[in-house]
Fold:
Amino acid sequence: MTERPPRPDSARFAARDQKAEIVDRLYEVALDPIRLEDLLEVWEERVTALRQGPLDRAVTLDDPEIDAHVSRARVFLDRYEAARPESGYRLLLDDIPRAAAFVSDGGARITACNRAAQRAFGLAEGGPVADLPFDPADIETLRGVIRKVASGRAERVATLRIRSGLTGSPVILRVSALEEKGLALVLSTELFWPEDFSQIVQEAFALTAAEVEIVRGITLGLPLKDIAGQRGRSIETVRTQARSILAKTETHSQSELVRVVLGLMDVALIPAIAPEPALPDGALAALPFQEMRAPDGRRLDYIEFGAPRGRPVLFMHLDYGLIRWPAEAEAQARRAGLRVIVPVRAGYGQSALHPKGQDHIQGVASDYAAVLAHLGVKQVAVIALGADLRFALALAQARPGLVSGILGCAAQLPLRNAAQYERMDKWQRFILANARYAPKVLPFLVQAGFSLARKLGKEKFFAQVNGGSPADMATFARPEIRAAILAGSEVCLGARVSAHEGFTRECISSERDWSALIHGCPVPVQLLQGDQDPQTPVQTIRELMTDYPALEVEFLPETGQLLFFKEWRLVLERLIPLLPG
Structure:
């Protein structure tokens, strides 16, 4: 009898036309993420054949040609993201309101500039670099430094001293590399005098209009003789006025005067914020982020709500970063004496990613333990959404006695075979199956998904991705739930946040075999599962439960992945026996 050849542990696309069609779709998505669903349809048609049999014998996609195209497509996708009006370096420029700053690749045109650069240097976005008020030789030197810094051929930060052709004064330029490849930020010491700021200075210090103009000149770095020349006054007259200004502002030197004026400018540039009106019924109150340092020095953020001295509950926010509860649920936590602690996981919000190569599950568990230790919490019950169950199990094993019990909501369990992926709704399968079968391609798919969510808006994106679960769509339609999901997910996808790298790592770790964590769990675990879960259908849960008889499972009708948000009252009721003390 002839033995079968061993099954390969990786595969490539055999047909050239199949590969060409996928490559075409990759670049279409990179240029416009709205085409992601087209890629999904073609990809699923081509790779389904790879997903066969038990997962311990799974064949993963390892096609160097596809990998190369994915890498190139990500470059285009990065540029697409950077070109969004509210993204990348444009947000950075918005955060520099008073100093002239611009972004450049060292070419002939200005990539972007802030308002201060427009006023101080006369620049325009897309305008010629030659418009900079410097000597042409100095401009060429600056362009050369920009190219070296942006390309990584020099230190990430360089400093130049150039004389202004407008004022004759020296200007210090700081050139630093940006995350966007090939670009550098140029920050200058040239300042912008905001509109209406003269009136603010005049009112603040009881100055005359003439004195305000002298303050303006001193603040912008002009020597007194130049100020005198501009105003058609003698230098002695201007010196006398300057002494009067120092007396009125209670400063003792021009440098101290500049510091005081710049401080006032910072206050003046803060947008006016109207008093917060009383919150309507169902509205979420603002919660401040708390910051701490992990043992390895990384930043970790967290929020708290409920009763400050209540029984601790650790809430794990799912890979969508759902850190908030519906307003009434948060109020009920306070009434019930629950202190709800929500750490923001690595790569979400301002919490720093783990170093590459670190075991993701253990790293997240260590971060949870660090936050609890920082808060002095000795024991805690855990509510875990989806595949966050693995983090709760790892925490219970790594820190004996810290976890009193675990309540999983719409939990995901380690899958056993390809058929369990095929039961998922298409969007969930597209991400999670590729996390298992094509992990090299997954980062592009996730980043494209995040770009699509930005383009559509989170509400429309949610409807597109979760449309296969009528229960989830009905739950999301409830205003107080939609408000909690949209507000909470800002740590995943917000104006200044994109957690696509953290999301990718979460997906890859969720699809590895973590069954040993379930078998070794030392605390009670109860699961609440939905009958319309697009990711983990009832049939899949029933199949997997035969492997884990210690888990207690309860199915809830007309619920899906958003089970917690719809049934939070029942969740809190089931939590009571698991609470510490």
Notes: The first helix runs from residue 16 to 31. The longest strand covers residues 170-177. The chain has 25 helices and 17 strands. The radius of gyration is 29 Å.
